[in-house]
């Protein structure tokens, strides 16, 4: 497994968050190196879409039903639209890296923070090919309900709990930290080709990815840093 953290080069919030992320991983005893991935920037977003020949297909102002999936796509609060697109493209780049390298990746955003050492069995689970390891509390919508439902499960890795109507995309607890196998990367790349590019935490949902899982034990949380996409 290789670990990557998405960092916005030259952005003080992102750079300092990354430094704290690396320190926290060392402090809990993880032995893997966290490699830095310089994020796609807002200025690069439109050119990157053209280069990859993919389309952004998510609304900015009004919720719409996706014709192909039947899912309701609800706009995110976004000041700089290209920053939102750049974030999705950064995850997309790492999905491609995972698929092309045929190696399991641990993908993190700069605001993740480690709370427990990651055991090997989480990355080796045969049932799920994308596994969220993040604490939902403070990092996703209806987080208390998400946490309570998950803690009632017996298995240590489960499908994300249902916390809303089935037409609302529901996935892992934020996308600050997740493990992806090559098979999971292939599914995400195919979804982008089929539905267009969405915010990564909307496209990576239980309705579209049947092998999406989340751990009952939370290995990471979020630092509570200012958003680099919503503000």
Quick overview of this protein structure:
By secondary structure, the protein is an alpha/beta fold. The protein contains seven helices and eleven strands.
Number of strands: 11
- What is the CATH-assigned architecture? Alpha-Beta Complex
Query: What average pLDDT do the residues reach?
Result: 94
> What overall geometry do the principal axes of the alpha carbons give?
globular
Terminal-residue CA separation: 33 Å
Low-confidence stretches: none
> For the CA atoms, what is the radius of gyration?
16 Å
CATH class, please? Alpha Beta
User: Helix content range of the residues, please?
Assistant: 25-40%
CATH topology: Spore Coat Polysaccharide Biosynthesis Protein SpsA, Chain A
* Overall tally of domains: 1
| Side-by-side strand order of the widest sheet | 2-1-5-9-7-10-8
What proportion strand? 15-25%
Q: What structural class is derived from the secondary structure elements?
A: alpha/beta
Q: So how many helices?
A: 7
Order of helices and strands: EHEHEEHEEHEHEEHHEE
Please give the largest β-sheet: 7 strands, mixed
């Amino acid at each position: 497994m290789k670990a990557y953290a998405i960092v916005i080069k030259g952005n003080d919030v992102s750079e300092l968050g990354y430094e704290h992320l690396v320190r926290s991983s060392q402090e809990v005893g993880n032995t893997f190196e966290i490699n830095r991935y310089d994020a796609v920037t807002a200025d690069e977003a439109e050119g990157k879409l053209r280069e990859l020949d993919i389309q952004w297909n998510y609304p900015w102002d009004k919720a719409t039903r996706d014709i192909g999936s039947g899912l309701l796509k609800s706009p995110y609060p976004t000041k700089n639209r290209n920053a939102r697109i750049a974030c999705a493209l950064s995850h997309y780049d790492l999905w491609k890296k995972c698929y092309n390298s045929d190696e399991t990746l641990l993908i993190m955003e700069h605001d993740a923070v480690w709370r427990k050492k990651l055991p090997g069995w989480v990355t080796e689970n045969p049932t799920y090919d994308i596994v969220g390891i993040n604490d939902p509390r403070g990092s996703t919508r209806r987080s208390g309900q998400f946490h309570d439902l998950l803690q009632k499960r017996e298995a240590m890795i489960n499908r994300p709990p249902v916390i809303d109507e089935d037409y609302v995309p529901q996935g892992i607890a934020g996308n600050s930290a997740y493990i992806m196998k090559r098979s999971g990367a292939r599914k995400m790349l195919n979804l982008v080709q089929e539905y267009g590019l969405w915010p990564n935490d909307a496209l990576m949902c239980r309705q579209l990815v049947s092998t999406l899982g989340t751990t009952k034990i939370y290995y990471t949380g979020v630092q509570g840093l200012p958003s680099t996409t919503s503000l």
